[in-house]
Amino acid sequence: MPSIARTYDFMLGGGHNFAVDRAVGEQIEHAMPGLRDAARVNRAFLGRAVRFMTARGIRQFLDIGSGIPTVANVHEVAQEQDPECRVVYVDRDPVAVAHSELILAGNDRAAIVQADMRDPEKILESPQVRGLLELEKPVGLLMLLMLHWVPDESGPLDLVGRYGSALAPGSFLALTHVTGDHQGENLEEATDVIKESRSPDQVTLRTHSQVAELFAGFEIVEPGLVGCGEWRPSGPADISAAAEMNMLVYAGIGRKS
Ligand SMILES: C[S@@+](CC[C@H](N)C(=O)[O-])C[C@H]1O[C@@H](n2cnc3c(N)ncnc32)[C@H](O)[C@@H]1O
């Protein structure tokens, strides 16, 4: 069966994927040309988000739904700012976990937990989180291209709240989420490909106000919840030449007061 992590790896140009993942990725890209660029723009936001947080004193990160490691992972960006930064990754995909373990071998300030994000307590009590993160100090929580895989019936708002309530004031939440607000039939065709694939994971598109609600308990910083390519881009590499690919994914950062 195709997996989200491996299909996304294919979309980003990575090599950790199988024919079944590439077939879904190609069909999605065919339905919505340029989608790969939206994935790249999301990945560029990851770097800006981590740098934004380290510039505000954050030295520990929890990256939920971290995926198969590709260049410029959270620990690389953060530890480049300060080698003391500590990072815990979480993914439930065995391939993502295996590759993360390989990449992190020898780095005693980063680790991965294999878990379903819908079990915050298990994650927060894992030996990796207990060993690397001090939850009484602010944490940078990342949930990038992750919550649209969590359907409404799994209570995404409550889930984000359970993570948020475990974090100290001054913590940040960085979130990106696919939206249909600015897209037409193409996106419907792309989500139909996923529906028709045998993947157990399905996309829940959310509107601007639905994504903004996920920041409950966090105050969204400037420029607000905006298209990923509009969130403080620092150069051409942060945006897509296709305007709609800057807007397919909402991005925002909130601060817990
Ligand atoms: C599209 S990738 C995003 C990777 C990375 N966060 C980024 O933005 O570049 C989504 C990841 O979320 C993971 N994922 C999806 N649902 C999950 C869940 N319920 N628990 C843990 N991980 C999950 C998938 O395995 C996949 O690796």
Structure description:
- 41% of the residues lie in helices and 16% in strands.
- The longest helix is centred in the first third of the chain and has 21 residues, at 35-55.
- It is of the alpha/beta class.
- The chain has one domain: 3-Layer(aba) Sandwich (Rossmann fold), CATH 3.40.50.
- Strands 1, 2, 3, 4, 5, 6, 7 and 8 form an eight-stranded mixed sheet that branches.
- The relative contact order is 0.17.
- The structure holds S-adenosylmethionine.
- Residues 4-5, 8, 42-43, 46, 65-67, 91-93, 96, 116-118, 144-146, 149 line the site of S-adenosylmethionine.
- The count of DSSP E runs of length 2 or more, i.e. the number of strands, is 8
Q: What would the principal axes of the Cα set say about the shape?
A: globular
Q: Provide the list of bound ligands, each named once.
A: S-adenosylmethionine
- What proportion strand? 15-25%
Major sheet size, sense and barrel closure: 8 strands, mixed
The helix tally amounts to 11
Number of domains: 1
Q: What's the CATH architecture name?
A: 3-Layer(aba) Sandwich
Give the distance, in angstroms, between the N- and C-terminal Cα atoms.
Answer: 42 Å
The structure class reads: alpha/beta
Keywords: Methyltransferase, Transferase
GO molecular function, one term: methyltransferase activity
Protein name: S-adenosyl methyltransferase
InterPro entries: SAM-dependent_MTases_sf, SAM_dep_MeTrfase_SAV2177_type
